[in-house]
């Protein structure tokens, strides 16, 4: 007779259980015989049931551990991404808007916009950083707009453009700087002529002083160039040009000087301007 895996015969009783599979392990329950060993069979069944239950519990724990590990890994990636998105802009407290965006003041509008978009993308998760970037961008755009409406004259740039002009370079090439001793000598000579012209004006005007200035110009030019013809041509040309320019300045540009009074005040002032131009010609003309 068989009942629940038990079989009996005239010689005894035995227990037969089907094979139980759990994972890769195979559990087989041995058979016991004898009517006197039923208590041992019962205890053996309880032990095997406990082993099967423990195996299932361990399997469930392993599955829970794997699921938890997967969840932790996913949460870690999300945390890293969140930390990256919430990174703080390192130049958030820099006051100069150009330095805050990391661009130069000569940057074009396209470069400004590109710098703004790049930084916004990098620090999009941190609102104060985004506000600082937007504020710097707005300040630069407003400054550019104001400069277009109110252009500022760059004196250094204008001077550089003037110096690079071919006509200005041609004029500058006609002059050279002599020794300091020569500059002092010519300066003293024309300074004495100016003082004599102001202190001793005549009714006919400073004719004598003007004639001396012409001779002094020719002499100083010859002293530098060592050529009589060039000295005479340069001296006479500089004298005529200086008188014409001095007269034009006195008539059209320079107002009357209160310190110089008298009937010949106009001629005296014109002579002083001429002395200055003759000094430049005799000292620096190449």
Automatic annotation (TrEMBL):
<protein>
    <recommendedName>
        <fullName>Protein CHAPERONE-LIKE PROTEIN OF POR1, chloroplastic</fullName>
    </recommendedName>
</protein>
<feature type="transmembrane region" description="Helical">
    <location>
        <begin position="182"/>
        <end position="200"/>
    </location>
</feature>
<dbReference type="InterPro" id="IPR021788">
    <property type="entry name" value="CPP1-like"/>
</dbReference>
<keyword id="KW-0472">Membrane</keyword>
<keyword id="KW-0812">Transmembrane</keyword>
<keyword id="KW-1133">Transmembrane helix</keyword>
<feature type="transmembrane region" description="Helical">
    <location>
        <begin position="266"/>
        <end position="285"/>
    </location>
</feature>
<dbReference type="Pfam" id="PF11833">
    <property type="entry name" value="CPP1-like"/>
</dbReference>
<feature type="transmembrane region" description="Helical">
    <location>
        <begin position="206"/>
        <end position="222"/>
    </location>
</feature>
<feature type="transmembrane region" description="Helical">
    <location>
        <begin position="231"/>
        <end position="254"/>
    </location>
</feature>
């Amino acid at each position: 007779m068989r009942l629940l895996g038990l079989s009996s015969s005239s010689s005894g009783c035995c227990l037969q259980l089907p094979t139980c599979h759990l994972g890769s392990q195979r559990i087989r329950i041995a058979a016991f015989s004898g009517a006197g060993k039923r208590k041992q069979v019962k205890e053996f069944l309880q032990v095997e049931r406990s082993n099967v239950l423990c195996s299932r519990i361990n399997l469930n724990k392993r599955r829970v551990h794997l699921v938890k590990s997967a969840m932790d890994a996913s949460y870690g990636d999300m945390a890293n991404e969140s930390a990256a998105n919430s990174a703080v802009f390192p130049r958030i407290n820099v006051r100069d808007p150009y330095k805050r965006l990391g661009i130069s003041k000569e940057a074009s509008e396209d470069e400004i916009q590109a710098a703004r978009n790049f930084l916004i993308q990098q620090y999009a998760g941190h609102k104060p950083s985004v506000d600082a970037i937007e504020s710097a961008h707005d300040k630069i755009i407003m400054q550019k707009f104001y400069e277009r409406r109110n252009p500022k004259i760059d004196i250094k740039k204008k001077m550089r453009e003037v110096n690079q002009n071919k006509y200005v370079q041609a004029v500058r090439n006609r002059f050279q700087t002599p020794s300091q001793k020569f500059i002092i000598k010519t300066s003293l000579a024309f300074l004495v002529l100016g003082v004599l012209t102001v202190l001793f004006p005549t009714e006919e005007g400073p004719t004598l002083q003007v004639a001396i200035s012409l001779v002094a110009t020719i002499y100083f030019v010859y002293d530098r160039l060592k050529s009589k013809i060039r000295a005479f041509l340069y001296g006479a040309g500089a004298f005529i040009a200086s008188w014409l320019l001095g007269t034009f300045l006195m008539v059209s540009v320079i107002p009357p000087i209160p310190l110089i009074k008298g009937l010949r005040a106009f001629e005296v002032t014109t002579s002083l301007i001429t002395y200055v131009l003759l000094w430049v010609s005799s000292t620096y003309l190449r």
